[in-house]
Specification:
heterodimer, A: alpha/beta, Rossmann fold, Fumarate Reductase Iron-sulfur Protein, Chain B, domain 2, four-stranded mixed beta sheet, B: alpha/beta, disordered N terminus
Chain lengths: 455, 320
Amino acid sequence: MSHEQTSLAFRENSVRALEDSALRAAMKQAADTFGTKRADAFAPVPDLEALRDRASAIREEVLANLPMYVDRFAAAATRSGAVVHRANDAAAAREIIRKVLADRGARLIVKGKSMVSEEVDLNSHLEAAGMEVVETDLGEYIIQMEGETPSHIIVPAIHKNRQQVGRLFADRLGVPYSDDPQVLTKIARKALREKFLSADAGISGANFAAADTGSLVLFTNEGNGRMVTTVPPLHVAILSIEKMLPSLTDLPAFIRLLPRSATGQPITSYVSVVTGPRKAGDATGAKELHIVLLDNGRTEINAGESRDILKCIRCGACMNVCPVYRTVGGHAYGWTYPGPMGLILTTLLTGMAKSHPLVDASTVCGACVEVCPVRVPLVDLILELRRRKVREGFSDPKEKRGMALFGKAAAKPALFALGQRLAGGFWPLVRAFGGKDVAGRMPAPSRTPLRRRLP
Amino acid sequence: MPSCHGRGWDGVGTGRNPFLFDACIDGADMDIAEQDVQTTISVTDRAYAHDYDKVVLRGTSPQRDARDDIRKHPMGVQAAMQVLLFGTCLVDTFFPESGEATVRLLRRFGAEPVFPKGQTCCGQPAFNAGYEAAARVAAEHFLWEFDGDAPIVTPSGSCAAMVKHHYPWLFRDDPKRLAKAKRAGERIYELTQYLVHVAKAHEAGLRGKGTVTYHSSCHLTRSLGVREEPLMLLSSLQGATFVPMPDAARCCGFGGTFMAKLPEISCALADEKAASIEATGADTVTGCDSGCLMNIADAMRRRGTKIRVVHIAQLLAEGL
């Protein structure tokens, strides 16, 4: 199922979300739970700030030498027996993967959770080529059944409550209704087990790629990640180029940071390191491994002033604490990545013309910066994008005129004081015309401003 | 008008002090009605205020001179530390009572506040909306108005954070102004920072009443790092009970221009904040930033809740 970007309608999307009481209750509960679990998980970690510094420095090192690490990874992965493909954009990635699958006659494909595959809209492309693609992460399985996209990068069905899932399963799978998460999980597990065993290929993402060993690293909880990468004869991994780590020995810092930040777990149930396809004597593993490295604008981002967003390790902590995200949910952002990291990445990857309302979808409260495990300066990046929005002419003309006037009055106290008095004198008019949303929520200016009360 | 040696001191005509009651630092006769302050100042001290403006415009630093004058004064008036008061555009325009309360607090704790008359806005509305040039104009003007060595005190965490953290960026390519910006960042205090770290107001046994809860504004808390100071002050109030608010540092939804651009989300966030406040059972909610308090007060009004929303400056000044 293909999904058009609706970021330009962020405000309309958010108004619709605000009216959805089930969504709001589910979001609030989930975001609060993850927020609390995250804090609890980090409480016993000694020298957390030093750990964040180290992880941040590792990510910065990768970005400073990105082409070198990508080349190094590609060479090492090739040596391990994998086939490495480079995709410059989404269309190239989709086509590479379709061809690899079609050439081997693959009909049934099981998929592990991958946001990059969402970014390139892979499923619809493969389905159009006559393949059956089954999402096997429970959350992804639910939203695929519903025909939706993920509303959270870690918890794709965060916007749904268990009653909704129960009804969905009853409708689509013909099972008796239940809203017991254990019962629902068992139903999904049974249905998915059959798919795993008969699948022709597995598609996964990767959380990290170790440049020195050519290994893919996956953090998963449900066990589906291991099934996808080892049971079918063919494994195709898609990841974006910035997921590099210089070395597999850099991984421990991220093992400590990523699961805690994402789900509040000291470690995920599985941390899988995949180095090449199955070799003679290996008990498990796909016979063939293809790795698709997606650029899709990242080389350009890495060369510009917003580079730091590429440090992101996709933990989702910033969205769990974002007041805007937790109120309207992920779909309002209208593309693959929601929340603070998402609005930045969306604007950069899809362009200001398709996404400019997103840069205002933040109160710049800084809660995200406080929790980011790799110190992405999210607020600074949002402010930088706002400046770009103004520079590129996407700002509201009324606001632009207002700010031009502000720029004049800010250095002219007499003009400033006059503005103050005019606003005070004509406040009922300001309130009545155009200013309802703002002026209607503010008190009238004082008849005697502070400057006239003090000497 | 209670007796006050400040008045006599000023009366002898040193002509350097714009405030009349600076010397009343024993606190015994500080119960001065706002009106008294205004009228007396307007009669006696306009001339000085005028001079002061001129001095500033000449680009010299009058603060040190003024302080020396006080120290050397033959009547031996206790030296008061001169501080520059940045009212902020919101307080100046909408909430002057918070500014006056700030003045009373500063005087009570031995400081001599001077209000540079040419001050406007720190530039935050333009800066946060992406208008770099307009923000730079405001910042440049601020640096001009608040030039010198005296501490700058402001009843706003976000404006203090703007000066401290964003001015250096705005002048990153202008070494002369960059130095001034950094210096201003070192000199600026959010009010509760000043009251705790300089004035030790939390040890003064200020009076309070009722049950008070506190909203921890975003930029104050996370950008400026002011977390404990307001709590120290509020929990020191004699006769008042402080009750913490759940998720006190969660954004209220004000966000400057955010309030105008996405009013529906802004109101939803303010409602969530109002519900947290109501859950405390407090009769008063306070905070350090007028923008947030204005947004919270609006939510309270919409919900028909009778909880008083008041700036911490006013709440503390009531207990003088």
